[in-house]
C-alpha cells in the first residue's frame, strides 16, 4: 500500500472532532535523541498497511465526518458502532451478455439492495475491483474473499450457480459489517445505475483517489475515551494471542471438514448411488426369474419385488442428488470462512507491531532516552489499533455464531428430509406385499 509521506502532525488526540486537521503533538522536539526503531523488513504488513507510520506519528490528513469510524464499548468489549440503517442485497438471475457486437461474452448478476429497491447489474470484474479497493483501504478489517476466478467453463450452468451462491455469501458478509456496509466504494457499487457508464467511472476514480488509506486510514478511527475506556496492554496481547490460537485451530478443522464433506459427497454421487442401484438390479433380476414360473397366484409377489427394485433404484438417485441440498452449502460457508481466516494473520501482525513499538518506547522512557509525552503519543495510537482489532475480532465471532447456527440447522433439516424420503420409498415397497 502506498502511504502519504508528510511532515509529522503527531498523534490523533481523542478529543479532536472529525472535520478538522489534527494539530501537532506527540511530544514536540524531544531533547533526547532516542527514537523507536523502524522495522527492518519494509515488506511486512505492519509497514505496508501504514500501521508503523501511524504509530510513529507520521500520519496526517483531514478527516471528514463521513470518513469517521467509531469503536464503542459493548457487552463483549470493543465493537464497531452498528450501522444505523442496516440493509441486505440479493444476487439473482445470472445472465450471459455480450459486448463488442458479440465478440466478448460475460455473466452479469442482478443485485437488488433492500435500502434502494433499485436493481443494478454487475460483472465479476466489478466485484473484483471493489474487493481490491476495500482490501487496500481497511488493513484491520477482514474483507471477505470472493469466489475464485476460473478461466475455463465460466459459462457452464453448475459453475455459474456455484459462483452465484459464493457471491451471495460474500454480499451477506459485506452488508453485515458495520464499516464495510457504509463504505463509499461499496455504496457506489450497489447504487450506481448499470447504464450510466460516466457515473460509474467517476465513482470508481473517486474511490481510487481516496486519501484515507494506509497510515491515514487509522486517523479515521474514533475510540472510547474517559474513565474505564483505556485498554490494558497485557490483556489485549492475551486476547489477541488467544484469538490467534483459535483461528489456527478453526482453520485446521475447517480444512478437515471440507475434505471429509467433499469425500462424502463424492461417495454419495458415485459409490452410494451405484451400490443401491446394484441392489435394485439384483431384486429386478429375481422378479424376472420368478415370472418364469407363470403361476397366477405369484404375480403379486413378482410385482412387489419389481417395485422394491425400483425403490432401491430411486434411493440411489436420492443419494446422488442429496449433497447439493446439504453438504454443498456447508462447503460454500467453509470456503468463505477460510478466506476470513487467511486475512487474520496480517490483521494480528499490524496489532502486534504496534504493541512492540509501545514496549520499546516505554523502555526508552525508563532509560531516560525519551520524553514521556512522546511515548504516550505512541501508546495512544497503538490503543486505536488495538480497539479496532478487538472490534473486528468481536464482529467475526458474532457473525460466525450466526452463520454456523443457521447452516447446521439447514444441514440437519435436509438430512432429516432425505431420510424421510428414503423411509417413504421403503414403506411404499413394503405395502406392496400386503396383498400378496
TrEMBL record:
Keyword flag Mitochondrion: no
Domain of life, per UniProt, equals Eukaryota
> Which sequence ranges form a coiled-coil region, renumbered to this chain?
none
A GO biological process this protein is involved in?
A: cleavage furrow formation
The ranges of region (Disordered) come to 1-34
An example of a Gene Ontology cellular component annotation for this protein is: cytoplasmic vesicle membrane
Span of the secretion signal? none
Record keywords? Cytoplasmic vesicle, Membrane, Protein transport, SH3 domain, Transport
Q: Which SUPFAM superfamilies match?
A: PX domain
Broad class of the protein's primary localization: membrane
For whether the record's keyword set contains Lipid biosynthesis, the answer is: no
A Gene Ontology molecular function term of the record: phosphatidylinositol binding
| Limits of the PX domain | 87-197
Pfam name, any one = BAR_3_WASP_bdg
Annotated PROSITE patterns: PX
The similarity annotation says: Belongs to the sorting nexin family.
| Protein name in the entry | SNX18 protein
Species in which this protein is naturally found = Dasyornis broadbenti
Name of the gene encoding the protein in the UniProt record: Snx18
Amino acid at each position: 500500500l502506498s502511504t502519504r509521506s508528510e511532515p509529522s502532525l503527531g498523534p490523533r488526540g481523542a478529543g479532536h472532532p472529525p472535520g478538522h486537521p489534527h494539530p501537532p503533538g506527540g511530544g514536540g522536539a524531544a531533547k533526547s535523541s532516542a527514537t523507536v526503531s523502524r522495522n527492518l523488513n519494509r515488506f511486512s504488513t505492519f509497514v505496508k498497511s501504514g500501521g508503523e507510520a501511524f504509530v510513529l506519528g507520521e500520519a496526517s490528513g483531514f478527516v471528514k465526518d463521513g470518513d469517521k469510524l467509531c469503536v464503542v464499548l459493548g457487552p463483549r468489549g470493543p465493537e464497531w458502532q452498528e450501522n444505523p440503517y442496516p440493509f441486505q442485497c440479493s444476487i439473482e438471475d445470472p445472465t450471459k451478455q455480450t459486448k463488442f457486437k458479440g465478440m466478448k461474452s460475460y455473466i452479469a448478476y442482478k443485485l437488488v439492495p433492500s435500502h434502494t429497491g433499485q436493481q443494478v447489474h454487475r460483472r465479476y470484474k466489478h466485484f473484483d475491483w471493489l474487493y481490491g479497493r476495500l482490501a487496500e483501504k481497511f488493513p484491520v478489517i477482514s474483507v471477505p474473499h470472493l469466489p475464485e476466478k476460473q478461466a475455463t467453463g465460466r459459462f457452464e450452468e453448475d459453475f455459474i450457480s456455484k459462483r452465484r451462491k459464493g457471491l451471495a455469501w460474500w454480499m451477506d458478509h459485506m452488508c453485515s459489517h458495520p464499516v464495510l456496509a457504509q463504505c463509499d466504494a461499496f455504496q457506489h457499487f450497489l447504487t450506481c445505475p448499470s447504464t450510466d457508464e460516466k457515473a460509474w467511472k467517476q465513482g470508481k476514480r473517486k474511490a481510487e483517489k481516496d486519501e484515507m488509506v494506509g497510515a491515514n486510514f487509522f486517523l479515521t478511527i474514533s475510540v472510547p475515551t474517559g474513565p474505564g475506556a483505556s485498554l490494558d496492554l497485557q490483556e489485549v496481547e492475551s486476547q489477541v494471542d488467544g484469538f490467534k490460537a483459535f483461528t489456527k485451530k478453526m482453520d485446521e478443522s475447517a480444512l478437515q471438514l471440507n475434505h471429509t464433506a467433499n469425500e462424502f459427497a463424492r461417495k454419495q454421487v458415485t459409490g452410494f448411488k451405484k451400490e443401491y442401484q446394484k441392489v435394485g438390479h439384483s431384486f429386478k433380476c429375481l422378479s424376472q426369474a420368478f415370472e418364469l414360473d407363470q403361476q397366477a397366484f405369484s404375480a403379486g409377489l413378482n410385482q412387489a419385488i419389481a417395485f422394491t427394485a425400483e425403490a432401491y433404484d430411486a434411493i440411489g438417485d436420492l443419494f446422488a442428488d442429496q449433497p447439493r441440498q446439504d453438504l454443498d452449502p456447508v462447503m460454500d460457508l467453509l470456503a468463505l470462512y477460510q478466506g476470513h481466516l487467511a486475512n487474520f494473520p496480517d490483521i494480528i501482525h499490524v496489532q502486534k507491531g504496534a504493541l512492540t513499538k509501545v514496549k520499546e518506547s516505554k523502555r526508552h522512557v525508563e532509560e531516560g532516552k525519551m520524553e514521556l509525552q512522546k511515548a504516550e503519543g505512541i501508546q495512544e495510537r497503538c490503543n486505536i489499533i488495538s480497539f479496532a482489532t478487538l472490534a473486528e475480532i468481536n464482529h467475526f465471532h458474532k457473525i460466525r455464531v450466526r452463520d454456523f447456527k443457521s447452516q447446521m440447522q439447514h444441514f440437519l433439516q435436509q438430512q432429516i428430509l432425505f431420510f424421510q424420503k428414503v423411509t417413504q420409498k421403503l414403506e411404499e415397497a413394503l405395502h406392496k406385499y400386503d396383498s400378496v
